[in-house]
Design brief:
Layout lengths: L15 E3 L5 E3 L3 H19 L4 H18 L9 H15 L14 H17 L6 H21 L13
Antiparallel strand pairs: 1-2
């Protein structure tokens, strides 16, 4: 459990921050870029919809765990079971959707959250020696958000029609 009694510490005023294992790193280091992108993704997911609360809350908690692991927390790990959970939810929602015949024009907050998660995944790939389940989790999470967006927009989804000219 984290207890925050004081929000500002002034320890980051020099462009450095501390990881969970108290290592000082630049705020622009690859690890902090990845943690920041995961945090942004978490916020976007929280704003995505008031539906699917149980799934959204589980995912947001997972993203906090994921960020903690990236920050070097010694007791928190994203396991394969978290990736499997996402795959199962994707499969459940996908059963209610028609196969795609073209790309979907992205509309709405779930698609926006999906693109932020994709960026977080790219940032994670820039880090050496990272738990491979972190990148897998983010990859599946973007897939889940895509399927949830399709489900949410069912019947009003717009598809890409290529222009030939």
């Amino acid at each position: 459990m984290v207890i925050l009694s004081k929000i500002y510490t002034k320890t980051g005023d020099d462009g450095q921050t501390s990881t969970a294992n108290n290592e000082r790193v630049s705020k622009t280091s690859p690890i902090m870029e990845a943690i920041g992108a995961v945090d942004e993704a978490n916020s976007a997911i929280g704003m995505a919809t008031d539906e699917y609360n149980d799934i959204i809350e589980r995912v947001q908690s997972d993203l906090f765990d994921l960020g903690a692991e990236l920050a070097g927390a010694p007791t928190i790990t994203i396991s394969e079971s978290r990736v499997t959970y996402l795959e199962n939810v994707i499969d459940d929602y996908n059963e209610y959707l028609e196969p795609l015949k073209s790309f979907v024009l992205p509309t709405g907050p779930l698609h926006n959250a999906r693109t932020i998660v994709r960026r977080a995944e790219r940032e994670v790939w820039k880090i050496e020696n990272v738990n491979p389940n972190i990148a897998k989790y983010l990859n599946r999470l973007s897939d889940l958000l895509f399927v949830m967006a399709r489900y949410h927009n069912k019947g009003k989804e717009k598809l890409w029609v290529p222009s030939n000219g």
